[in-house]
Every structure is written in C-alpha cells, then in structure tokens.
Design goal:
The complex is a heterodimer of chains A (about 55) and B (about 550). By secondary structure, chain A is of the alpha+beta class. Chain A has one helix at about 35-45, and strands at about 5, 15, 25. With about 550 residues, chain B is α+β, with helices and mostly antiparallel strands. Chain B folds into four domains: about 1-175 and about 380-405, Nucleotidyltransferase, domain 5, CATH 3.30.420.40; about 185-225 and about 315-370, 2-Layer Sandwich (Nucleotidyltransferase, domain 5); about 230-310, Actin, Chain A, domain 4 (Alpha-Beta Complex); about 415-460 and about 490-545, Substrate Binding Domain Of DNAk, Chain A, domain 1 (Sandwich). In chain B, the strands form seven sheets. In chain B, strands 1, 2, 3, 4, 11 and 12 form a six-stranded mixed sheet that branches. In chain B, helix 2 crosses helix 3 (about 150-165), helix 4 (about 175-185) crosses helix 10 and helix 5 (about 230-250) packs across helix 6 (about 260-275). Chain B is globular, with a radius of gyration of 28 Å. The chains are: A alpha+beta (about 55), B alpha+beta (about 550). The interface between A and B is large, with 43 and 83 residues. Bound molecules: adenosine-5'-triphosphate (ATP) and magnesium ion (MG).
C-alpha cells in the first residue's frame, strides 16, 4: 500500500515552521555491525552510500 | 590457526561460544559436557576441580569450594555483604589489600586466594575447554559484564583475563549481547525499529534493561538490578518445602547441619530444572538427616505455589524497569527472557500477563523455537568477537571514544502527514543521529502535493472489542451475561508540531516520489523531496533543533 501525500495549492517550495524538540544525549551500545558503521561514519566521515549495500 | 570467542561470566555459571564461518554460533561444551559451566573451583588434596565437579564438592568439601565470586571483582571487602544468603562454600574474607579473598586448605596447607586469583584460575579452565573443543589457540575474547559493573571492575576483569592468557578484545554489556544474538537470529530483525526489554534472571541476581533498536543501533534507556533475587531463591523455597515434609515424616530437622542443607539445595536445583520441562518430578536424597533417606514427588503446580513469592518479585522487577524508562508496558514491542531461571514456565507466563497482547514475550516455554535463554549472552559475545576480529586494538579503542558512543537521540518521532491526515513516521523517537532515512510516496491524482514534516505526538487509542456472539444459543445465555467488553489499548502517534512544508508540483498522476530525512552530526535536519525519475530536481530545506 503506497503512502499518498495531501494535495496543496501552495506555491512556496519550502517553508520552515518550527524547530524540532531538543535531542537527548545517551551512550549507544558498541555492539553489532550497524554500530561499527556508525563509528566509522563519525570518525572518518564515511558517506551513507558505503553502508547502503 | 587461532580463533576468537565470546565468554559470559556469571556468578553462577559461565559459557563460551564461537562463531563459525557461516555465521552460526556454537556454544561450547567443556570436557564434562556442560555448556553452562558452574563458576566454581574446589580444592581436594592437591587437585583443583572446576565447574560441575567443583559445584558437587559443596556437599562434602564446602570450606574448600569457592562459588559466587564474580560480583566481588574489583570490590573492597567493606562494600559487600559477606553475610548474604547466597554465601555458601568458602567464606569471603578481607584480603591484605582490603579486597576480597578466600582461605582454602590445599594439601594440608592454608592458602589465601584473592578474587582475582580465583577468577584467573576459572578463566584458565575456560580457555582449556575452549581450545580443547575448537582445536585452535584462542587469540582474543569478548567478555560480557552486567550494566552496573563499575569502570574499576571492568579494568580488573580485563587485567585478570589477559593474565589468564585470554586477551580481551572488548567488554560488552550482558543485555546488549543477548539482544544482539536474538536479533541476529532472523534476517533483517536488527533493522526493525523496536523497543525491547531484556530481563535476565540468573542464580543470585536479576538484571533488566529497556533497549531501543533504531537503524540497527542499540541504546539502553533504563536498567534495573536486584542483587539477591534469582534462581537461588526458588531453590530455597523448594528446599524449605521438602524440609517441612521430611520433618513431618521423620521428626528430624535437615536444616541444622551444613551437609544436609547442601544436599537439600542440590536436589532442589535438580527438581526445579526438571519441573521446567515436565509436570512432575521425583526428589530423592540419600541419608538426608539422622540417617533417613528422603523420597517424594512434587508437581509443577505445587512448586509454583511454593515459590510464588520470588516468582512474583521477578515479575514486579520487569514492570519496574519499564517504569524507570518512563514508558508503559504498551510501548514495549518485545520482552526477551534471558538467564537460566528464564526456563521457568511460570515466570514466563507471569511476565507475559503484565504486557498487552501486542507485546511478544520470548521464552522457551512460550515458544519452542525460542533460543535457549542460558546461551543468548554467550552467543552475542561470540558474534561481537567475530565482528571485531579483523580490527586492530587501536581501531576498537577509537570506536569506543565518547565522541562516537555519546550520541544524540531524537526525543520525538519525525514524519509526514498523509492525504487522509494520518501521521507516517520516518524517524522514530530514540533514533541516534547522524541518520538518514527515506520513504517512497505518491501524489495520487493531485498535480501538486505537500510534504508536511511533523513531530509525532503519542496518544493511546482504545478500541472496544465486543465479546463474540456464540452460534450456539444454549451456550450464549450463561456465557456472556457476565462478560465485560474487552478494551484493547495501543500507542498511536498523531501529527503534533508542524516543522516544515515542501511543495512538489507539476506531477503526472501516480508518480513515484521520494522523501528523504537526514539528521547530520550537528543536529541539522535536512529534508528533501523529489520525483523518482531521471533528471528530476529535488526540493530541499533545513530544520534546526530547539
Ligand atoms: N532449566 C532450568 N529451569 C529453571 N531454572 C534453571 C534452569 N537451568 C538453570 N536454571 C537456574 O538458572 C540459574 C543460573 O542462571 P545463569 O546461568 O543465567 O546464572 P548467572 O548469570 O551465572 O547468574 P548470577 O550472576 O545471577 O548468579 C540457577 O539458579 C539455575 O538453577
Ligand atoms: Mg547472569
């Protein structure tokens, strides 16, 4: 089932309305391959596409 | 050739596991054939006994048998309660350096063994068992620790393990190891965004953690610990039940003598485990007290009544950790029961009773395909060991730096509103960033559509489920006059605060569109939308954090 977007008559390409709620800082668990991907993204600025395979 | 392994080291038992080439994990049996190896050492004459053989010495040779020492690593004698009910075997004494030690007699000579020394000997035995089984040298280990192990305890354990010849690659938290193993069991399960409770019921303690999994990354939201609540309480309840029965029959008290008590406990453990599998068990103890043998049978129901108190404390303990995380049982997708005591059918059914039907409770008595709760932690450690095997020490260390590990998590879900006004989450709450996610959507028959980015608002939806009408008219009369309509509750997110709006226009009906949300390291949220066709131009914008 596909997600249908609401129709609009606005002509503005982009409009920001408000900020999102402040994030919470917590430690993540250093286990599993997705953690390792996160670590190397943070440390070496690897791009997403390298992990999207 | 060498191998890396995972070790879980409990106060009661330890397990070793190794990941094989094809991604499977073997839990290793020691030469006695045990996969749950009692964390016990015993000295008889000049011999050292380990595991089950040492455990068995608690009856004949308790003063030279050391058990339940894991939690004492890196602790001062003053910090512990040496009078704990689980203090059996050689008593813990104050070591010269203020730490904890045991005094044993070996070959007629008194020896003082520090907790570190005992642990080192235990690890040497585990190493032997692992090398014997795998047929290779052990190059490195991942060891699991409880989430309340202090930094100092972690350091001490690492030191001791290295000294035993088991080089520590990484220490990881027990519940995270268990969950990793559980999620690696099924394809793609790690990538499903869910909230889990990992409840670990061991021998002398219980531990629980609420863990969110987002994009395959685990975050602990809350933990709880109960030092003292565990399988030993179930053993004690059963032992007391048997003691009463014995006393009534023979007018002899089996509690007054150390050896009788040890026999009673040892048999209670066997009976308890039997009752996890079948409905009735025999109990037989030769010469329990004053020369009388004891033979009786007990059924599961009787046992569950006898152990009702500790069993309900365990259930309440699970409820407590959910509250500590600021959540309700409704928010929990799955409860993973871990640890030896989680084999207990009544515990699993009690726990599933406090959660709504939508929450899956994973335990062997509820699902015969569930992994063995005694093995999950070791399996996770083995998986982690094989995962980091190819990294060098520096790389592992680097990945554990605060800048990597202390990560920002979204407080609320972020998503879009659909044509019929529903909130469609793209990033769920507790997602760690940086993160990037996309969803495919369509414009339906509108030529111009809005991508309205919202924060989700948690609401509870109540649905009244009418009792089903019975086909049989005779049944219906007495059956449902007293039946209350059931109310099903579920957590539903509605669109809350509007964050931004993007417009995509000049679209052909039913075009394929993509919405991408990307929160970068600095907390900037980039949103973009585009038509999924060659040469389309994306509409983009940014939202910042409050
Ligand atoms: N089949 C079973 N049915 C019921 N209880 C069991 C079963 N198997 C093991 N146990 C109990 O599980 C407990 C040991 O659990 P586990 O091996 O997870 O301990 P541990 O992690 O070393 O615990 P702790 O550190 O809390 O002492 C013991 O009380 C044991 O009797
Ligand atoms: Mg344990």
């Amino acid at each position: 089932m596909s997600i249908v977007l609401p129709s609009t008559s606005s002509s503005e390409a982009f409009k920001a309305s408000s900020k999102y709620t402040a994030a919470v800082r917590r430690p993540i668990e250093p286990v599993g391959r997705y953690f390792l991907a996160h670590a190397s993204r943070t440390l070496r600025g690897h791009t997403w596409s390298e992990y999207e395979k | 050739m060498s191998a890396v392994i995972g070790i879980t080291f409990g106060n009661t038992t330890s397990s070793i596991a190794v990941a094989t080439q094809d991604g499977k994990v073997d839990v290793i049996a020691n030469p006695d054939g045990d996969r749950s190896i009692p964390s016990a050492l015993s000295y008889v004459g000049s011999d050292e006994y380990h595991g089950t053989q040492a455990q068995n010495q608690l009856i004949r040779n308790a003063p030279n048998t050391v058990v339940n020492f894991r939690d004492y690593i890196g602790k001062k004698y003053e910090e512990i309660n040496a009078k704990d009910s689980h203090q059996v075997g050689a008593p813990a004494i104050k070591a010269a350096d203020g730490g904890i030690a045991y005094e044993i007699t070996r070959n007629g000579n008194q020896e003082t063994l520090s907790v570190n020394e005992i642990t080192k000997r235990h690890f040497k035995q585990l190493k032997l068992a692992a090398e014997d089984y795998i047929g290779k040298d052990i190059e490195g280990v991942v060891i699991t620790v409880p989430t309340d192990f202090t930094a100092h305890q972690r350091e001490e354990l690492t030191k001791v393990s290295n000294e035993a010849g088991l080089k520590v690659l990484q220490l990881i938290n027990e519940p995270s190891a268990a969950l990793l193993a559980h999620l690696s069991n099924e394809e793609d399960k790690l990538l499903q965004d869910k909230i889990y409770v990992v409840a670990d019921f061991g021998g002398i303690r219980s531990d629980a953690a609420v863990i969110s999994v987002r994009g395959g990354v685990l975050t602990i939201l809350a933990t709880a610990h109960d030092h003292g609540l565990g399988g030993s309480k179930l053993d004690a309840a059963l032992a007391e039940f048997f003691a009463k029965e014995f006393e009534k029959k023979y007018k002899a008290n089996p509690r007054t003598n150390q050896r009788s008590l040890a026999k009673l406990i040892a048999e209670s453990v066997v009976v308890k485990k039997t009752l996890s599998n079948v409905q009735t068990s025999t109990c037989s103890i030769e010469s329990l007290a004053e020369g009388f043998d004891f033979h009786t049978t007990i059924n599961r129901l009787r046992y569950e009544l006898t152990a009702r108190q500790p069993l309900s404390e365990m259930t309440a303990f699970v409820e407590k950790v959910v509250t500590k995380a600021g959540l309700e049982t409704l928010d929990i997708d799955e409860v993973l029961l871990v640890g030896g005591s989680s084999h207990t059918p009544k515990l699993a059914s009690n726990v599933s009773f406090i959660f709504p039907e939508s929450t899956v409770v994973v335990a062997p008595s509820l699902d015969s395909k569930a992994a063995n709760p005694s093995e999950l932690i070791a399996r996770g450690a083995a998986l982690q060991a094989s995962l980091i095997e190819s990294f060098d020490e520096e790389e592992v260390k680097e990945s554990l730096q605060p800048v990597v590990v202390n990560t920002q998590h979204l407080a609320k879900p972020i998503g879009i509103k659909t044509a019929d006004g529903q909130f469609q989450p793209i990033l769920v709450a507790e997602t760690a960033y940086p993160i990037k996610k996309s969803v495919e959507v369509t414009n339906g028959d509108s030529a111009a559509v809005a991508i309205q980015l919202f924060e989700g608002k948690r609401t509870i939806k109540e649905t009244v489920i009418e009792a089903e009408k019975s086909e049989d008219p005779e049944d219906s009369e007495d059956d449902y006059s007293d039946e209350e309509p059931e109310i099903k509750k579920e957590v539903v997110y509605e669109a809350g605060q509007l964050l931004a709006e993007l417009t995509l226009k000049d679209l052909k009906p039913n075009s394929k569109l993509e919405v991408i949300v990307n929160v970068t390291q600095d907390g900037t949220l980039h949103v973009s939308g585009r038509e999924l066709k060659q040469g389309s131009v994306a509409v983009k914008g940014e939202v910042t954090s409050a």
